[in-house]
Amino acid sequence: MKQVLGHDKVRTAFGEALQDGRLHHAWFLYGIKGIGKASLAEQLTALFLCESPDFHTYQACGQCHACAMLHVGSHPDVSKIERLYDAKKKKYNRDINIAQTREALGFLALSGLKSQKRVLMIDDANLMNNQAANALLKGLEEPTEGSLLLIVCHDLMRLPATIRSRCMMQACAPLNESDMQEVLKQQDMKEALLPLAIELGQGSPGRVTTLLDGQHATALLAWQDMLADLPHSDIGLMQKWLDKYVKEIPHDLIANMVLSAAHDAMQEAPNWATSSKIYEALAAVASWQKEVVRHTLRPAPALMSYVLQLRAVLKEK
Predict the structure, then answer these.
(1) CA–CA separation, 177 vs 200, rounded Å?
(2) Which domains does the chain have, with CATH numbers?
(3) 230-240 residue pLDDT tens
């Protein structure tokens, strides 16, 4: 199994607890999306089930029968909950429902087929609806011997405090620049795109996977060029770019590039009044995604209006 970068403290805490025989039955891994929490949960699963774990590095051996079954995804004592894909609607369901949770908790209560251990991983746990969350709470209150629950969550406050209080809470931090660069290279990110990916990713490789698409990468580099001198940029070209790519490229990347382009201008503002105006214009850009949803706005025209406001303020400077 490939090493997961950036979460050594969590893996060490888990490994030490496992080695000492004091492993908590439910671990809650939380942090921003795209930093490898689900991969970390898979690595902890392997360490938990491994027949010959390495307690110096806190890694599974990768050679035993349990590791071999995990590698091909056929270990009978491992289950996972995640959003289901609706083939008819051709999209993922909005949430994780109570039927999924009850079925998974039933699995967790069974005796293991290959050992006395069972593992249940819940990915995107913040998408559980209220009924599913309540069912999970009952499972946490009555853990079965040999069971391990790994909860992966991107939005900590979406789950009730009663669930969080019954888990071993583990914060997963964004990756540092060195680990970020290594992960991106493993994903075959082009060398020329690494600076942009590191800047936009903000410690989350998952946030910039769209740069692995050649067309999207070229488009974002063109967007970066347009923003390089925003007070004198070609409005027509910007509007055409947004009309073409606003439905294809993640909105947070588009907006963050605007914010990054104007950041230095705010720092170099000649006085507080000008700095305040730039800040307000940037805040409007930052709120673009929420405003589109809240007021059912068309994304491209909405962002263009905020960019024009920012552009006007920068021209005054």
Answers:
(1) 12
(2) 8-171 (3.40.50.300), 213-316 (1.20.272)
(3) 999 999 999 99
